[in-house]
Amino acid sequence: LAGTVPEEPRCTVERADASLTYSLFLQRFAFSRPVILGGVTDNSAFRALCTRDKLLAAFGPFPVRLSTANTYSYRKVDVPFQEYVEHLLKPQDPARLGSDTLYFFGDNNFTEWGPLFQRYVPPPFRIPGTSPAYSFGVAGSGSGVPFHWHGPGFSEVIFGRKRWFLYPPDKTPHFHPNETTLAWLQHTYPTLPPAQRPLECTLRPGEVLYFPDRWWHATLNLDTSVFISTFLG
Questions:
Q1: Pairing of strands 132-139, 76-80
Q2: What is the pTM of this model?
Q3: Closest Cα to residue 182, out of 217, 148, 141?
Q4: Which CATH number do you get for residue 213?
């Protein structure tokens, strides 16, 4: 399945480049709509530390906490990072439910992963009254998190491509909480009239998506992907 999950026909999320000022970010996006930021940071040094070989050498024996790939992610499983990469990091099985799909995204032990995060250059914008927390993940082709919402944040792709689907807080998407994003894309998405489709776009390495508070979003890794989010809590 690797490489067979499609990108969207047309990106419908607004884009901005390094000319975007902090005041314009606050005025146009921070509290109202998502935006894809390009060229606002240089994480080439961080990316060099996130290759398969470098991550296995640094973190192979350490446990990582996997979550189920459903909206609520109740079940957690701890395995050594090397076991996850070598045995569980596979393309998503379209027939598996979210509760049967384990996914490494964000339950990071900061004692162990802290030195890596110190090399990450976060986006230069903040929401007043919030502080950042990092969430790092590695996932296979076709995997992802189905629709959910939380506070505002940024998400950057380090390797691979990640497709995003977003709805504003007042438009609850139609989905089953235990259906994977891949199953939703295959079964529900084609039935949606154009007016009911989400904002969507595919992020590539070096691109950062900002999503405002309480916006619904689902993700789909189109390739084996490495990514990091900055949650503003």
A1: unpaired
A2: 0.95
A3: 141
A4: 2.60.120.650
